[in-house]
Model the fold of this input.
Amino acid sequence: MTITITAFECSPDRGQGLARDTRVRWALEEVGLPYQVRHLTFQTMKEAAHLALNPFGQIPTFEEGELAIFETGAIIFHIAQNHAGLLPDEANARTRAVTWMFAALNTVEPPILEFSGMRIFERDKPWYQDRMPMIEDRVRTRLDQLSARLGDAEWLDGPFSAADLLMISVLLRLKPSGMLNNHPVLAAYVARGEARPAYQRAFEAQLEDWRMGSQRAAAS
Ligand code: GTB
Done:
């Protein structure tokens, strides 16, 4: 069955791999599933056809036969549940990996999103200088805690899993800020994720899509 995901026609991150379709591509690459991509502009994302797939008018979505779902976490969980390679078989280990998937999205990502959102959208606001140290502190706290837990382990809990895929994707959002440089354990963890052939294929695919999208935009 053909898998179709949605992604930006021309990602605002200019192909840095920070938009969330990269996470889904990475999961698909890890389990060896081919997929096609439907590209959307900010306008087509808010039209009825896409809102039927994602009521919030966002990417990514995932379609496979009769199934159409949204939310990156749910998409990756679906892929991991149905294909070997992203979740352990043993019940408790599997539940622990799922716990880490939630931790990545619900505990680590929110302060990082606030931090990167401020850097992008609020730099010129009068509150930026006062507020930023507090936001940075929240991120640092999470990085310290995660770093302490990871220690010298290769991955979060046993072999590489969907939990690492999500956690590393979340941490990658910090790369442009240089904030990971003060956390060598996490910088090395992220580098291990980026070195995976599946990540590299996913990254290259989204970059190529961005190149094509920006050429189309320039030609129109
Ligand atoms: N909780 C949802 C999920 O995990 O799937 C969130 C989905 C989401 O935030 N989608 C974003 C979107 O569609 C794209 S990924 N935005 C358009 C809109 O809301 O109108 C977030 C993103 C966007 C841009 C960058 N960037 O340029 O660096 C990075 C990440």
Remarks:
- The chain has a mean pLDDT of 97.
